[in-house]
Design goal:
Length: about 180
């Protein structure tokens, strides 16, 4: 695997960031054992009320008004919802590639709740980022395309130059998000 080296290009691509998007998670499809999981559920129960009342994410970022490096600062909230450990989940989100294979397919990524996270907006706190290793490498349609990820949730941190995650899903099967 080669390390994803297009951070500059990725950053430029993400400058057209969409505003924070709330996900309306639909019920699990018939026969599915995976539990649809909302981003708020990744927080410990005692932190959910505060997060639900938090202000909306900015729809853009003005780099000229910020100190250098401030746009990439990430809160270090690693407190997790232990009840998710071992649960087969299905979550919507956006893919932030971490590693690609020699054919340009994604082999590792962060699943994040909104488009543009981990690049020019402050990354979400680690307890709102999921590190994902898909069962098979896949071709990312677009950075702006949301995906469903289905797999077993584990509590475990992963830190890269793009940010940190407090959850891990391995053997995942990503699919394009459809209502």
């Amino acid at each position: 695997m080669k390390q994803f080296r297009g951070a500059g290009l990725l950053c430029m691509t993400l400058l057209a960031i969409a505003g924070g998007q709330a996900w309306a998670v639909q019920g699990a499809s018939a026969g599915s054992k995976a539990q649809d999981t909302q981003w708020l559920e990744l927080l410990p129960e005692n932190e959910r009320a505060a997060a639900a009342g938090a202000p909306a994410l900015p729809s853009s970022h003005n780099f000229l008004d910020e100190a250098p490096g401030q746009a990439l600062a990430q809160s270090q909230a690693f407190v997790v919802n232990e009840a998710l450990a071992g649960r087969l989940i299905r979550m919507p989100g956006y893919v932030v590639p971490i590693n690609l294979d020699d054919k340009g397919r994604v082999t590792e990524f962060f699943l994040v709740p909104y488009y543009g996270a981990c690049i020019h907006m402050p990354p979400p706190p680690p307890n709102q980022v999921v590190y994902v290793v898909p069962a098979q490498p896949f071709t990312l349609k677009s950075l702006t395309t949301p995906y469903w990820v289905t797999g077993q949730m584990k509590i475990g941190s992963k830190t890269t130059r793009l940010g940190a995650a407090a959850y891990t899903v391995t053997g995942a099967s990503p699919e394009i998000y459809k209502n």
